[in-house]
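Why does residue order matter? Because the sequence determines the fold. Keep that principle in mind as you read this record.
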Amino acid sequence: MKSLLKNLKGDRLIWSIAALLAIFSFLPVYSAASNLAYVSGNGNTFGFFIKHLVHLFLGFSIMYGIHKIPYRYFRGLSMVMLPVVVVLLVVTMLQGTTIDGANASRWIQIPIVNMSFQTSTLAMVVLMVYVARYMSKINDKKITFKESILPLWMPVFLILILILPANFSTAAIMFVMVMMLVFLGGYPIKYLAVIIGAGILSLTMFILVAKAFPDAMPNRVDTWMSRIESFANEEVTEEDYQIEKAKIAIASGGIRGVGPGKSLQKNFLPQSSSDFIYAIIVEEYGLIGGLVLMVSYLWLLFRIVIVAQKSETIFGKLLVLGVGLPIVFQALINMAVAVQLFPVTGQTLPLISSGGTSIWMTCLSVGIILSVSVKREEIKEQENAEENPLEILSETI
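Structure:
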């Protein structure tokens, strides 16, 4: 155990937060798994527990492996992975739109292991690393809109267009995160206004085309519109079933909750172990548990900002913010949906919700952040060694 801890480099608090969130996730996932076991017909909740354990084990293995890679290598890897991601997104679009009667246009099946993989989550990580690379590259140069169209905005809009038809919420979050990152990277605000305007215009054109040719993308635009309308409309409709059950769960929790595993609404709330797991957490652990979880993500945000601030390079700073901010942003959106402060989006709660792809990509992002913090520790150790001549002499001998 001690040898393992010695090999864990980087920001120890980020390691601790990620580990605590992962350990805590077993309680609500196992509790909510009773509904999934009933729906599947086998009644075995332990199988879902083991599945979640395997996902987390693979995720932390990814985190451990990635944090050992010097973060400067992610510059080149983003260039290599960008066309790979585009191909994966195209394959995802071209595959069948249903699996066992459910919409599966966001996932591809991995043949050998028979597992599903959501390509848009990988696309977000790769795109944010690519944007961080480009913005650091032009940091000391005068930025012109014309020169940035092809190397920066063409890949961004291509990936967004490939994701948009099947996953509007992820495309919207990705667009917002890219805008935030290029703003932090010093991209002129007047050019950002043009890009935002172009994005709104493109979305409008997409909706009009989808309405004119409904057979091309059945039900997707209608689903977005119904979710937004039900959020804006105060009257309770059939579309509000999930959010109403979530609010009942939250109200039932009170201050201290009904206790671990004692949730009633998990039996009625669809996606109780993924999209609406925060409502189950508040029901079982109360307002106190919900606030502690929120503080944990805000604590993670604080550490992300600290790591970014201490990085020695512009690329390191932008890289940490690029892959770190979406984690916290997604968590806050998931919580906001559960309390009806935001329309239903289908975004999971990072490191808490069940689902392999979400866990793996979150661990990938955390591993990249840790890689940047490892470099800072190495520089600090080198500076301390240079200040101690006797240590240098002993190493030389």
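The longest helix spans residues 277-310.
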